[in-house]
C-alpha cells in the first residue's frame, strides 16, 4: 500500500481499498452548515460522534469550527483520536475492566480530558477505578440529560 501523501493526484484506479475519498469543498460546506444550525442557531454545545467520520483530520476540522469535543463509541476509537491530538473525548459506553481502565489512563495524557459513562450503582465495585490511581484526571460530572453523575477519566 502506498503512503497516502503519494496518492494525491493519482488516478482512482491506483488507489488501494478501502480508501476515503473526500471532496474538500463539499466537506467544508457541510461542516459550515452543521455549525450554523447546531451551534449558531440552536445554541447547542456540539460534540460530534466519530462513527460518521472515523478520521482524526475531519475531527480536527469540526473542532476548529466550534465543536467542544468529540464522542466515540468505544475505547479503541478514543485512543486513535487521542493519539492524533484530540483533547476532549467522550466515550459513549462504559469503560469496564481493569485493562480498559488502564488503557484509558494511558491514552489520556496530561492535556486530554476523556469522559466515559460509569453509573456507580451498576458498576461492580471490583471494576471501579481506585480513586488514588486516577486522582489527577478523575472527577465527577453530571450529565446534561439529567442522569446520575458519570466519572470523567
Structural class by sheet pairing and helices: alpha/beta
The CATH superfamily is identified as Alanine racemase
Cα separation of the termini: 36 Å
Strand adjacency order, main sheet: 1-2-3
Q: State the assembly state of the protein chains.
A: single chain
β-strand amount = 5-15%
Tally the helices. 5
H and E order:
HHEHEHEHEE
Helix content: 25-40%
What sort of overall outline do the alpha carbons produce when their principal axes are compared? flat
How many β-strand runs? 5
Radius of gyration from the alpha-carbon trace, in angstroms: 18 Å
Would you state the CATH class?
Answer: Alpha Beta
Query: Main sheet?
Result: 3 strands, parallel
Structure description:
The protein is α/β, with parallel strands linked by helices and 153 residues long. The protein has one domain: TIM Barrel. It has helices spanning 24-41, 56-64, 75-83, 98-108, 131-134, and strands spanning 70-72, 88-91, 113-116, 139-141, 150-152. A 3-stranded parallel beta sheet has the order 1-2-3, with helices on one face. Strand 2, helix 4 (98-108) and strand 3 (113-116) form a beta-alpha-beta unit.
Task: Please outline what is shown here.
With 153 residues, this protein is an alpha/beta fold. The chain contains 5 helices and 5 strands.
